[in-house]
Specification:
Helix content: 25-40%
Strand content: 25-35%
CATH superfamily: P-loop containing nucleotide triphosphate hydrolases
Bound molecules: adenosine-5'-diphosphate, magnesium ion
Strand order of the largest sheet: 6-9-10-3-11-12
Largest sheet: 6 strands, mixed
Number of domains: 1
Shape: globular
Number of strands: 12
Number of helices: 8
CATH architecture: 3-Layer(aba) Sandwich
């Protein structure tokens, strides 16, 4: 589904990614971990299509297509979903309207009719209940005056409504309490299916107590320095990231 080959990227004069290789198949959950400043958010922003970064080498294929050649709307329409560390606030646009517009723009891209109001409301109700969200939040502006936990829920609601093919969640665990972590995990787990894949970017192992990844990668110094299964996350929690640097020095 996603194939990242020898990806090099920079922002301003700063070379951030220095040859990232990653393959994600349908049905898989990948966790990307790594020390602060290692390029995790940069990688997710590039998949999302943010323009602050310049790809200087390498490529990203998404279902065989050149992802870097697709604009943000196209990526979204093709099923790529990005949830960000700091969800944006959009004044004057209600959550409900935002969600329906987002769903309809995906439909339009695929030459499908807009979702019927009744169908939309039923789906919204079902997901709000699952996430324990109050429906009055749907009439408020996107993320405006939401608490951290409410923003997190809202992000997962967007994901649940849009049913992306590839979801990328960039999580700073800072400020996320156990309840919020569980919401994220439940959202990711609910999306698990043979056709979909998720990449969870996370600094801490704690989130992975609730989401069991198929593959864990460590990004350090702009490269994936280690890949393994979920046991790698436990090893990192136990030893910290330092041991990887020691290994690198020893070899
Ligand atoms: P992580 O998410 O792993 O903590 P980031 O991808 O946010 O790491 O950042 C990696 C490095 O790139 C950091 O040194 C950061 O300061 C730098 N960086 C990130 N974004 C930009 C930018 N837009 N312009 C310049 N430098 C940036
Ligand atoms: Mg950071
Ligand atoms: Mg980050």
């Amino acid at each position: 589904m996603l194939e990242i080959k020898n990806l090099h990227a920079r922002a301003e004069d700063n070379e951030i990614l220095k040859g990232v290789n990653l393959q994600v198949r349908p049905g898989e959950i990948h966790a990307i971990m790594g020390p602060n400043g290692s390029g995790k958010s940069t990688l997710s922003h590039i998949i999302a299509g943010r323009e602050d970064y310049e790809v200087t080498e390498g490529e990203i294929l998404y279902n065989g297509k050149d992802l870097l050649d697709m604009d943000i709307e196209e990526r979204a329409a093709e099923g790529v979903f990005l949830a960000f560390q700091y969800p944006v606030e959009i004044a004057g646009v209600s959550n409900k309207y935002f969600l329906r517009t987002a769903m309809n723009s995906v439909r339009k891209y695929h030459d499908e009719a807009p979702i019927k109001r009744k169908e939309f409301l039923a789906l919204l109700k079902e997901n709000l209940e699952k996430l324990g969200m109050d429906k009055v939040m749907m009439d408020r502006s996107v993320n405006e005056d939401f608490s951290g936990g409410e923003k997190k829920r809202n992000e997962i609601l967007q994901m649940a409504m849009l049913q992306p093919t590839l979801a990328v969640l960039d999580e700073t665990d800072s400020g996320l309490d156990i309840d919020a972590l569980k919401i994220v995990a439940d959202g990711v787990n609910a999306l698990r299916s043979p056709e979909r894949a998720t990449i969870v970017v996370t600094h801490y192992q704690r989130l992975l107590d609730y989401i069991v990844p198929d593959h864990v990668h460590v990004l350090a110094g702009g490269k994936i320095v280690r890949s393994g299964d979920k046991s790698l996350a436990f090893e990192l929690e136990e030893k910290g990231y330092g041991f990887l640097q020691e290994e690198a020095v020893a070899t």
